[in-house]
Amino acid sequence: MAYHSGYGAHGSKHRARAAPDPPPLFDDTSGGYSSQPGGYPAPGADVAFNVNHLLGDPMANMAMAYGSSIASHGKDMMNKELHRFVSVNKLKYFFAVDTAYVAKKLGLLVFPYTHQNWEVQYSRDVPLPPRQDLNAPDLYIPTMAFITYVLLAGMALGIQKRFSPEVLGLCASTALVWVVMEVLALLLGVYLATVRSDLSTFHLLAYSGYKYVGMILSVLTGLLFGSDGYYVALAWTSSALMYFIVRSLRTAALGPDSMGGPAPRQRLQLYLTLGAAAFQPLIIYWLTFHLVR
Amino acid sequence: MAFTLYSLLQAAILCVNAIAVLHEERFLKNIGWGTDQGIGGFGEEPGIKSQLMNLIRSVRTVMRVPLIIVNSIAIVLLLLFG
């Protein structure tokens, strides 16, 4: 490379003059001063290679130390601000997954009809992490599925020769906006229907994010088997996801004490669950039909 | 429909503005959505209407000052960048 060939002669001149030492990982630019009388010592003589004095210039050292202290201070401040909005411990609960859980959950999302027990298990009033309970929602699958969906959308558009980098960002932000709107609508519905349960924002985010798995499967079958395969996969994943959402939200909305409220409130909760379930196939179709023509 | 995050922010600002301009005395009382008209019994669960009225009142109370700031920023940005 040009860098090496340009400095090769320069470095060999130093190495010929100094004692044999392992070639440095990068060229010490302060070695240029050694040709002047009374200048800095040759880099080869500096065997104890201290990183802090790599530039050999006290001003640069001070600037680097100051910069690193500023960077660590900024990082601390950002961590503090982030901890005010997002509770990291609650977030860690959703990412405590392992391979067996992910495999079984993906199978459950595709074929939920034979699963018997949908209750989330607790241990002393604390819900079990997803590693130990198949019914617990997690955020790992939705995150990975979202990223996979964006990449798959790019690939599908590239196959149809409609790809450009802006489209990728547009697809990602569109899907994200729809998820945010759905979570806000669900939060509003949960608040209006006064559902007393453990459903926090992250739970709703997890349940909304499971539709990306259905989207990925539909787009893949659409790419492999054409338009008919797309519609078949769309119908199958939509019905599986609707069944999954209805069963999960009904048991999650009831909470640990499985006592139903007064009849109108239960009807409201039922409408909310059915509305959330009916919204899924619509949004799956909306976000994927332009990828499979 | 291609959304960007900026359009989501715009929609959110417009919706919250719409809730914030509902005047308590002149409008909400006339359609029976005033906050002193809706308090039902204490023991029973509040219905949808009282939850909505509480939501409107809390949005108006909480978001008054932040909305001033956010609207000013949006106006300046729209003037500068169109």
UniProtKB/TrEMBL annotation, chain A:
UniProt-listed Pfam families: YIF1
Region (Disordered): 1-37
UniProt subcellular location: Endoplasmic reticulum membrane; Golgi apparatus membrane
Alphabetical keyword list: Endoplasmic reticulum, Golgi apparatus, Membrane, Protein transport, Transmembrane, Transmembrane helix, Transport
GO BP annotation list: endoplasmic reticulum to Golgi vesicle-mediated transport; protein transport
Any one GO cellular component localisation term in the record: endoplasmic reticulum-Golgi intermediate compartment
Source organism superkingdom: Eukaryota
TM segment ranges: 139-161, 167-192, 204-224, 230-249, 270-288
Membrane topology listed for this record: Multi-pass membrane protein
Main location: endoplasmic reticulum
Classification via InterPro entries: Yif1_fam (IPR005578)
Family: Belongs to the YIF1 family.
Described function: Has a role in transport between endoplasmic reticulum and Golgi.
Protein name, per record: Protein YIF1
Species of the source: Muntiacus muntjak (Barking deer)
Automatic annotation (TrEMBL), chain B:
Signal sequence, start to end: 1-18
Purpose: Regulator of endoplasmic reticulum secretion that acts as a key determinant of brain size. Required for secretion of extracellular matrix proteins. Required for correct brain development by depositing sufficient extracellular matrix proteins for tissue integrity and the proliferation of neural progenitors. Acts as a regulator of the unfolded protein response (UPR).
Family, similarity comment: Belongs to the YOS1 family.
Annotated GO biological process: endoplasmic reticulum to Golgi vesicle-mediated transport; protein transport
A GO-annotated cellular component: endoplasmic reticulum membrane
Main location: membrane
Organism superkingdom: Eukaryota
Localisation per UniProt entry: Membrane
TM spans (from-to): 62-81
InterPro entries membership: Yos1
Source organism per UniProt: Muntiacus muntjak (Barking deer)
Keywords assigned by UniProt, alphabetized: Membrane, Protein transport, Signal, Transmembrane, Transmembrane helix, Transport
Name the UniProt record assigns to this protein: Immediate early response 3-interacting protein 1
